[in-house]
Design goal:
By secondary structure, the protein is α+β, with helices and mostly antiparallel strands. The chain folds into 5 domains: 114 residues, Ubiquitin-like (UB roll), CATH 3.10.20.310; 71 residues, Roll (Ubiquitin-like (UB roll)), CATH 3.10.20.310; 69 residues, Ubiquitin-like (UB roll), CATH 3.10.20.310; 88 residues, Roll (Ubiquitin-like (UB roll)), CATH 3.10.20; 227 residues, Beta Barrel (Porin), CATH 2.40.160.50. It contains 11 helices and 30 strands. The strands form 6 sheets. It has a 16-stranded antiparallel beta sheet with strand order 13-14-15-16-17-18-19-20-21-22-23-26-27-28-29-30. Strand 11 and strand 12 form a beta hairpin. The chain is elongated, with a radius of gyration of 39 Å.
Length: 683
């Protein structure tokens, strides 16, 4: 299709140029004075001239030019042709610049010979026969020969007939004999030699399938006339059986036939000799490649535990695809490209080279930014989702905002401890201070929290994890006047079960994520205790734009006990829940919110999103749980907007602008749109 389109475009250009160069043709008749063929290297001028649809001395027309161009392009020994015209009075000179194919003269001679042989002769075919047959029937083959009794003899048809007989696979030799009769007739006899009958077939090198299984897949059977075409390694059923079962590196290394009809097939199933991981090479001109330049930051054991292929096993496509999926799911890589190399020592061995491109994982930055929930924020952050190349998540942060919020935190989490069966562990130490500028004299104004959290988990398989976390906090609550509102120590235990089939932790395009957690908390100094249960469900799928566009959905529902301290109740609104509102606009003992995002990948580092959020949190004016409102999902508030995600060397940046579609609690009218800026990947 591309070739036809190119030809049409070039013809149109020729016609347009011709129109500009020979305006006199509109009113006067031009005659072709000279035709010059240029740029010839091997082809004789006379040969090219004989293929033209326009001649010297003829009347010029654009149709003849276009017909000539197409005629030249159809020749197997000419790659392209360009036409140039020069008008002088009533005459026009044409120069044709020819681009020859490599070995153009040899191709032209073969083509000329074929054209000559394809001409009808004056002889009539009187008989067509096949001799030398021992077991095969003439009728099964004579029908495929293009020569027919009573027709004019064409030499090329006789040659094509011999080719058809030989390509049937049943004959070791085919010799056409042409006998001329006295009455201007010709008879054609094809003298053939049949292949021997198959006496026995043995297969060597097979371990996946038994010889009986492979013989049943082979179309050639014992006792049959050997068909070489059916024994072709690229066509026979043996390799197809391997391919259909995912053993795509299997091949036939050798096939031997003796005079007694014994067939010996030697297989190479494709044993994995080595699996190597290396960085995708991006060599600059003049740069020397060194072994160090291909080393990945990610340590070998991280990749090895995600690899389903094993050295010494027969390569199987399904295990390769599962390996690639597992590596993508770590979220550490943006590209995985498998390459296959033959072994230098074992003809059956294959080396699998996995070229990988790592996602930027570590960043250290000082920043001054603006977040709608915290105001102007200044801080120093070091984050790394592949700490020391071990796939561990490490964070050290100091952040202070002009609205009184402060965070000091250091944390580490290992999702799979080396040398264990999916054991995971993490720890964090933190100090957090939050202030609510909208609080009045009796409301909670400031909360100071000193705490530590320790997590231990176990993966049950690739998709399911169970975790338990113990948290200790010293919490101090204050009024706006500075008077202490509450002071308590909190101990909480949180069991969590997670189901995760996302194809990538940091940039999912398909899969599900479900987390169920129940925090069981106790205030050390008094009788208060609580349970805080939360469900987080997410789903992702590609749209008709495939990898460039993803739909993402998230639903969160939670409930907590009536004795839960105010500082620990649900707070919503802002960049991470219901956009279009401020953080804390919705708070209570129950929460629900639902997010929908359409994510379009513009480039490898830029993503555009459109989103819709809806939800609320519920409690009564006397600070008691409003279970009825929560159960009926009363008074849901919504927002919608657009955003941009930018992947930078210092980590992902998120910019969102959202419009509230409802009036926020405590307000008399709908607010204007709000801008959100945050660091970190999307949910």
């Amino acid at each position: 299709m591309k070739g036809k389109l190119s030809s049409i475009i070039i013809v149109m250009v020729i016609l347009i140029l011709a129109t500009f160069n020979i305006q006199a043709a509109e009113n006067n008749e031009l005659r072709v004075r000279n035709i010059l063929i240029s740029n010839l290297r091997e082809l004789p001028r006379e040969l090219v001239m004989s293929k033209l649809k326009i001649r010297e001395g003829e009347t010029y027309s654009t149709k003849k030019i276009s017909d000539t161009y197409l005629a030249l392009r159809e020749l197997p020994y000419i790659n392209d042709a360009n036409f140039y015209t020069q008008v002088e009075g009533d005459n026009i000179d044409i120069r044709i610049e020819v681009d020859e194919m490599p070995n153009a003269l040899e191709i032209a001679k073969r083509e000329e010979s074929r054209e000559e042989l394809s001409k009808k002769t004056e002889f009539i075919i009187s008989n067509v026969s096949i001799t030398g047959l021992q077991s095969l029937k003439e009728a099964d083959f004579i029908k495929d020969i293009p020569l027919k009794t009573g027709e004019f003899f064409v030499p090329q048809d006789a040659i094509d007939g011999a080719s058809k007989l030989f390509n049937s696979g049943y004959f070791s030799s085919v010799e056409p004999k042409v006998v001329r009769g006295a009455d201007n007739t010709i008879s054609i006899e094809y003298v053939v030699e049949e292949n021997p009958r198959v006496n026995n077939i043995t297969i060597e090198g097979n371990t996946i399938f038994t010889e009986a299984e492979l013989l049943s897949a082979l179309e050639v059977k014992k006792g049959d006339i050997l068909n070489i075409e059916k024994m072709d390694p690229s066509k026979n059923g043996v390799i197809k059986k391997y391919q259909d079962s995912g053993y795509t590196l299997a091949r036939i290394d050798d096939m031997k036939l003796d005079d007694s009809g014994n067939v010996r097939i030697i297989l190479s199933e494709g044993t994995i000799e080595a699996i190597e991981y290396r960085k995708i090479g991006k060599k600059r001109e003049g740069e020397r490649r060194t072994p160090k330049s291909t080393d990945l930051r990610t340590q070998d054991y991280i990749l090895e535990r995600e690899t389903r292929m094993k050295v010494g096993e027969i390569f199987q496509r399904d295990k390769m695809e599962q390996t690639i999926r597992n590596i993508y799911r770590t979220g550490l890589f943006t590209s995985i490209q498998p390459n296959f190399k033959p072994s230098a020592t074992d003809p059956n061995g294959r080396i699998i080279e996995m070229e990988a491109e790592e996602r930027p994982a570590a960043s250290i930055n000082g920043n001054i930014s603006y977040g709608t929930s915290v105001g102007f924020l200044g801080g120093i952050n070091y984050t790394d989702s592949n700490f020391l190349g071990r796939a561990q998540e490490f964070k050290a942060a100091i952040e202070i905002s002009d609205e009184g919020d402060q965070t000091y935190e250091i944390s580490i989490f290992d999702p799979w401890i080396r040398g264990t069966e999916r054991l995971q562990a993490g720890a964090s130490i933190y100090y957090r201070q939050t202030e609510d500028d909208d609080a009045n004299g009796t409301d909670l104004y400031k909360v100071k929290r000193y705490g530590t959290r320790w997590t231990l988990g176990q993966g049950l398989n690739d998709d399911i994890y169970v975790r338990g976390a113990i948290r200790y906090e010293d919490v101090k609550e204050y009024y706006r006047s500075g008077a202490k509102r509450d002071d308590y120590d909190l101990v909480a235990f949180t069991p969590t079960i997670t189901y995760d089939t996302r194809n990538n932790r940091f940039s999912p395009q398909k899969g599900l994520y479900l987390s169920l957690s129940d925090e069981i908390g106790k205030i050390v100094s008094d009788h208060r205790s609580y349970n805080q249960f939360e469900i987080d469900l997410r789903a992702y799928h590609r749209t008709f734009f495939k990898d460039k566009n993803t739909m993402a959905y998230r639903a969160v529902w939670g409930t907590t006990g009536s004795e839960t301290p105010e500082a620990l109740r649900f707070k919503m609104g802002g960049a991470d829940s219901i956009r279009g509102y401020d953080y804390g606009d919705f708070e209570g003992y129950n929460e629900f919110y639902f997010n929908v995002e359409n994510r379009t990948q513009v480039t490898n580092s830029i993503q555009v999103v459109a989103f819709f959020d809806i939800g609320n949190a519920w409690q009564t004016n006397d600070k008691k749980p409003d279970r009825d409102g929560a159960d009926k999902f009363k008074d849901l508030k919504s927002g919608a907007g657009i955003g941009v995600r930018i992947l930078t060397p210092v980590g992902p940046l998120k910019f969102d602008y959202a419009w509230p579609l409802d009036i926020a609690p405590g307000d008399s009218k709908k607010d204007n749109g709000k801008f959100y800026f945050n660091f970190g990947p999307s949910w």
